[in-house]
Amino acid sequence: MKLINLHLNTIFSFLESTITINDFIQELLNNNIEYFGITEHCNFYSMPYFLNEARKHDLKPIFGLDVNVKIENNLYRFIVYCRNKESFMNLKMLSLNYGKKGYIDLAEIRDYSNLIWIEHPIFGYYKKTNNILEIQNHYFAISQYDIDNSEIQNIFDKCLLINHNSILKYDDNSIIKTMSNISNNKIFESIYEEFKIDIETKNNSKLEELIERTNNFAKKLYFEIETKGFKMPKFKNDKNFASNEYLKLLLFKSIREKFDKYSWTDEYQQRFLKELKVIEDLNFADYFLVVQDWVNWAKNNNIKIGPGRGSAAGSLIGYLLNITEVDPIKYDLIFERFLNSNRVTMPDIDIDVQDNKRNDVIEYLLKKYGHEFVANIVTFSSLGKKSAIRDILRINNIAPTLINEISKNIENDEQDLLVEYNENKNLQLSLAKLNPNDESFSTRILNQAARISGFYRQIGTHAAGLVISDQPVISIAPVQYNSENFLQTQISMEYLEDFGLVKMDILGLKTLTTISNIVDLIYQNQSLKINLKDIDLTDQKTLELLSSGHTRGVFQVESPIMIKALRQVKVNNFEDIVAIISLNRPGPMKNVSVYAKRKFGLESIPKINNEYDKILDSTYGIIVYQEQIMKIAQVVAKMTFIEADNLRRIISKKKVNEMEDIKSIFIERAMKNGYEKSLATNIFNSIEKFASYGFNRSHAVSYSIITFQMAFLKAHYPLEFYTSCISSAHGSQDTIAKFVNEASECGVEIVSPDINLSESEAIIKNRKIILPLTLIKGLGPEIANSIVENRSKYGPYKNFLDFLLKISSSQSIGKSTIELLIKANTLRSFNYNQNTLLNEIQKNNTDTMLFIKMFKNNIEGVSPNIINSYKPSEILNQDIMFEKKNEIELLGQVYNFNSSASNGMPGQTSFIDMHVGNEYLAIVNCTNIKQKISKKGNNYFELDLEANMQKIRAFYFTSNQEILNVKGKTIKVTLEKRNENIFYLRSIKEVLNEER
């Protein structure tokens, strides 16, 4: 007889099952099964996947939960179902509340009286204790082997034939055991049976009765889960207008504010009416109202919002509502690329917000719509090949060094592990070390790692997405609390719309925080209020900066490949920026040089047809944007923009089955429009060639505005620009060093961390950048804040004794921190060298330390005369080499001791000013050194060298291992500049000693 199985864990019951959804569905189809039960370990993560498959194959899934119940301090498992559609809400509530503790107490079962409680066939209370609980709607899961057990007879009427299903094949028992050890769940107590549908009854009437009872029971539990219809909240306005009317009210007000009767041309009017009709016809007014509301709230509360993102920047109505700051008509953007009347999904308006204030926006939404109506979105993390093999090796007690070696030799985390093993000699050799006497051990490890790779391990939270609903989210879809006690859907992003939930992406963008900080610094230092919306996009100083490639810290264009493109194209207008950002991606990147050559007349622009050529005029005959493809289709083949967008989508996604049809339609319509077949075919082939590379112009324009804004700030306000960029680096020494060195070259004075000047972020004082205390390696924000707070509370640190007294009450600052501060040269203003200050704190019985102990809790009781007359107990000689080395180790480079680089020419001190092909004698600090092996098998070394706050990386070809000893030292070297960024080290003339 066929059995409807009422208990199944899949890989969504993390590390408890090897059953994937596709494999299980195939098993059902192979056995012609219609009904099936899904009971993940207290989650509904697999629900949307099963619902999707059920619709395809006309199946009937029954959703329940597998939960832990705490009884007499022990945990037992129950399979829980809802009695009917009405009680499904209660089942979702059980899942929500369960997550707080990871179990429910026995007493809580009465709160869910309309649910059905079936004791687990292996881990149930009755199975473990042989005792019977007195609870409502209580059933027992038994296997076919229990049916003749005499103890079962008293409860047989309440029994159902339910197996514990977590494997499809018996051999996966070893995998279950491995995963159990990885997760430390310790659930593996016996050998599990493989999934069975056909049960051999052998004319056992009792077994047949049990199967029939179970099947009838299961069918009564089935109900269809409705997932249609968007649940967008109705936007409430203070005038109680209908949403469409209120939207128009806001739009007309904006038109009056942004345009006059001369600038609001007929083109704008027609575009406005077209967009408004689409939005009204699709009932999307509330969506636009909700988005504009929080965006405008953010802008009014000094939260920086990006000018636009994605195709939404192609909407005039989005611009009028201040959702975007991009005029789509001015920049020739297409609305249909964003939204058209054929769309069956919600519009997708993604918004960038400064990342340090994203939570403020979320708090606003929670307050406005209610905590139950707003939720984060779940994501799933799976085991990669490296993590899988590391976990398996760990539970087999393999030495960490060998684990690291094996993991390091896995090169491609995307490739099948077994395939890579056969191709990767290093991986084979490292795995052979596991047990040289037993090859089967490494084979078993490899096979297990390959088997569990890709299985889900844990959940996360979508970085940007939120759902906002017109009713409590739990009434629409299962939810849970995430680690921050914030409501989170149990439905992943791709299935939200199936449940009628609307996703909004609120993306934290660090660049916007940096821009906001720069603008604030300009106001603080110069009393200037900068409105970046008003800057001139033809500003020559900004364009010159971009053209020069001096774009470190400038959004999107600071990588070497972008710098090269900027210099090639010699940016002299905003459209160049848009094109470079669009072209500098894998695929179209080769067209950057073509664009540059055609721009300067070094290569002719191919002529196809006047209409076609005009569309590509701004990009010199190159198809750069998706919108250009749409315009070509519209002009050449007289397609509507809706049809043109469909053509773009088919070609860009290479939908082979639809490609020939759309090609025929394009050519046929072009011929009707007067084009020769050969020309129409040629044009279509051009579209086809570039379509997969075409970039969204709306997005490119929006992000180019951010690029221009940052370049403008760097060109006109370098002091504030570098200060903000240094703070944004959050203590990353390499990143900060690059900004510091570049700022120094621009004439900006830099002050290394100072105990009396520095704060936890970079600041400006007297037109100098004061580097933050957090730059110091090993000194975190908590200690930095404590130092600043003490200074604020008690006043500046007058000398070393005063400093020790004032920080003595701080729990976070101990002897090791004081040593860090001394070695990082933050106490240099006290006018004693590091050896002297370190000596003061080395012994607890020095006069200084005894004095600190005496007055630790009575700072106010210390006479100012004692502090002012302080002198160290012993003055030691300064060791400049020691202090330089400390700065390199703790600050990343030397800040307070000048080096010089010279070839005998006066003033030749800059690495940048060195000429390619020449050799130079230079005195430099070696901040780091790495040994490498070339492709030919030869030894060489990479040295990071620093002089006068400039850094380079030099290559030294030698096998002499003593070179490793120069790290942290000042050395005299001969350098050859090979090209703009590559230096070869020809010799180390000498290592400077202390006297030098």
UniProtKB/TrEMBL annotation:
Keywords: DNA replication, DNA-directed DNA polymerase, Nucleotidyltransferase, Transferase. GO terms for biological process: DNA replication. Residues 4-71 form the Polymerase/histidinol phosphatase N-terminal domain. GO terms for molecular function: 3'-5' exonuclease activity; DNA-directed DNA polymerase activity. It comes from the Bacteria. The keyword Cell cycle does not apply. InterPro entries: DNA_pol3_alpha_NTPase_dom (IPR011708), DNA_pol3_alpha_thumb_dom (IPR041931), DNA_pol3_finger (IPR040982), DnaE2/DnaE/PolC (IPR004805), DNAPol_HHH (IPR029460), PHP_dom (IPR004013), Pol/His_phosphatase_N (IPR003141), Pol/histidinol_Pase-like (IPR016195). It catalyses: DNA(n) + a 2'-deoxyribonucleoside 5'-triphosphate = DNA(n+1) + diphosphate. Its EC number is 2.7.7.7. NCBIfam families: polc. This is DNA-directed DNA polymerase.
